[in-house]
Amino acid sequence: MADNIDTLLKESRVYRPTDKTKSAAHIKDYESDYRKSIADPEGFWSGMAKELEWFTPWKTVLEWNYPWAKWFVGATCNIAYNCLDRHVRTWRRNKVALIWVGEQDEERVFTYAELYRQVNRCANALKKLGLRKGDRVTIYLPKIPEQVIAMLACARLGIIHSVVYSGFSAPALASRVNDAEARLIITADVGFDRGKVINLKSVVDDAMKACSTVEHVIVVRRQHVDPPPVGSKELDWHAWVKDEKPVCDAEPLDSESPLYILYTSGTTGKPKGVVHVHGGYMVGTYATTKYVFDLKDEDVYFCVADPGWVTGHSYIVYGPLLNGATILTAEGKPDYPNPGRWWDLIERYGVSIFYTTPTAIRLLMRYGEDWPKKYDLSTLRILGSVGEPINPEAWEWFHRAAGGDKPIMDTWWQTETGAILITPLPTVPLKPGSATRPFFGIEADVVDREGKSLPPNAGGFAVIKKPWPSMMRTIYKDPERYKAYWQTIPNCYTAGDVCHKDADGYMWFMGRADDVIKVAGNRLGTAEVESALVSHPAVAEAAVIGKPHKTVGESIKAFIILKQGEHETPELIHSIKEQVKQELGKIAVPAEVDIVASLPKTRSGKIMRRVLKAKELGQDPGDISTIEE
After folding, report:
1. Identical topology for domains 19-78+254-441+464-488 and 82-251
2. DSSP character string of 581-594
3. Residue among 340, 259, 551, 299 nearest 426 (CA)
4. 112-116 contacts: CB < 8 A, separation 24 or more?
């Protein structure tokens, strides 16, 4: 059975790049370059790889034994070497690599040379503890520079890092430490969140009761108080690294050597350890950062993610540093101490590239356009969005708030893909709400359950038809779970998202396949219904689920967050339903509307509809360790 998804959303607005954007861009003609890259994807990726440094060259670009891929076979390399050593030997030595701003507005700045020295000291300290290539280290830190330093130090030695978001509970941390069999945990005494002190060390202490493989715990002390009693396994970060030499050779590693394990539950059950490797991941993140964000040496690049999830790995740490960028990263929430927080940082540091999430954009929308208008945002050149599909209303608001003439790179990818796969480039005409077209070398399609391509505007399953360098290599200790990604639809990587292509080949993501709602014979994607809800002027955010219904199969229930100053009334609920009817038709109108204060989301800002559904139906929601709210 085809199980096609009905497409109801009609979006006709098109934004064309300005002459200024076109003249500055690395890529002038996407269509022509894309055709060449698809005709010879190995040639394209090999060309990108040659812009980086390898200790020994590859014998084969791709070895594909479905569903297992190896890229740049026989080569040796090191991603940390390419992030640091390659730049330290050039004029970039004294260029700013990393600017960090804390929640309390403290600032730390690292040039490439200083970051190189700090990473080397940490690498030497790791060696002194007996850690070596292939060992696993869990990094459980708030968003501070030591997080980046520890990741790069591990990579330098071929130690596999597993970054765990610092909002996780002790049981969630312990399960990830134990699965990775980590020998070391790097943490901090505290983190800060909206002015509150979060005691991270006590979480680690609790987790350690169940973690037998951990030999040492390194603690970054952020509070200037007398250090508490030190446990037998505990070391102070500053004492640990301060006397180490600032020189440490990068380990030459096989291209397929594991770089990191990142645990994700996303919208499913038990967390899975996604494994990425040095060579292919390096090439994928380098190429996408360079072309998607049109990165130049003079740019200041601000990505709001946390390295505790994959956007932080790929587009704060590895991709930008591989390109020799100046990165701004900031601890804290977008509306603390006020909703001008990010706009102020953009003005203060002259940010030119700003990469954020639809969730954060919708949060800022609640406070209105007066906040961004208070700041000089004229340095902005490129905007980006990552996470869930961005609904057209949020897209329009972001575009307008940032000055009205900056292209938005609405990027689609996953922890498993390692790097951006579907995306505009700055010179491609934009349609609000569409992730646009595949990146170079990526063959994407929308298909039915049998893998047959669907015609324009027919909703189906988003798939990638050929391997790409940054793809995950396996699920740690669970290769069968990895194979499922390639076996759901024959000979394709199935992302688990539903999508349709329009007549121009632009891809429109409609939600998770698991979340499709079946109403009276119609199969509706959640993203379209939610987009229609958010287009109402009183609605800030929305999530919808399907509930069993005797006559129509499923009915739609909507959970809605209102904008500041709006209040629930019967008239407002009626008006919201009418908006959906007008946008999508009667079939998509929710039978129930609940006004809520927050929605369950993953750390990456994705709404966990299965949790809403389980709660609504009185079922077990499964693993909820990745929930932020």
Report:
1. yes
2. HHHH-GGG--SEEE
3. 299
4. 112/84, 112/87, 112/88, 112/324, 113/88, 115/84, 115/148, 115/149, 115/152, 116/84, 116/85, 116/88, 116/246
pLDDT at residue 604, as a whole number: 63
Q: Look at residue 249 and give its three-state secondary structure.
A: coil
3-state secondary structure 283-302: HHHHHHHHHHCCCCCCCEEE
Query: Which residues does 220 contact at the CB level (< 8 Å), separation at least 6?
Result: 141, 144, 146, 186, 187, 188, 189, 237, 238
| CATH annotation of 82-251 | 3.40.50.12780
Rounded CA-CA distance 206/209 in Å is 6
Q: Which class in CATH covers the domain with range 516-617?
A: alpha beta
Instruction: Kindly state the tokens that stand for 2.
Output: 């085809």
CA separation, residue 108 to residues 246, 341, 346, 610 (Å): 19, 17, 16, 40
Residue for token digits 């507005």?
105
What are the residue boundaries of the structural domains of the chain, listed by start?
19-78+254-441+464-488, 82-251, 516-617
Strand boundaries in 502-551, DSSP class E: 507-512, 517-519, 522-524, 539-549
Q: Are strands 160-163 and 196-199 parallel, antiparallel or unpaired?
A: unpaired
Rounded-to-integer distance, Cα 288 and Cα 440, Å: 9
pTM (predicted TM-score): 0.87
Q: What is the pLDDT of residues 238-272, one digit of tens each?
A: 999 999 999 999 999 999 999 999 998 644 456 79
| pLDDT tens per residue across span 408-452 | 999 999 999 999 999 999 999 999 999 999 999 999 999 998 999
- Domain 19-78+254-441+464-488: give its CATH superfamily: ANL, N-terminal domain (3.40.50.12780)
CB 516 within 8 A of CB 23: no
User: For 261-340, where are the alpha helices, taking DSSP H only?
Assistant: 278-292, 310-312, 319-322
> What CA–CA distance (Å, rounded) separates 295 from 382?
9
**Length of the chain counted residue by residue:** 629
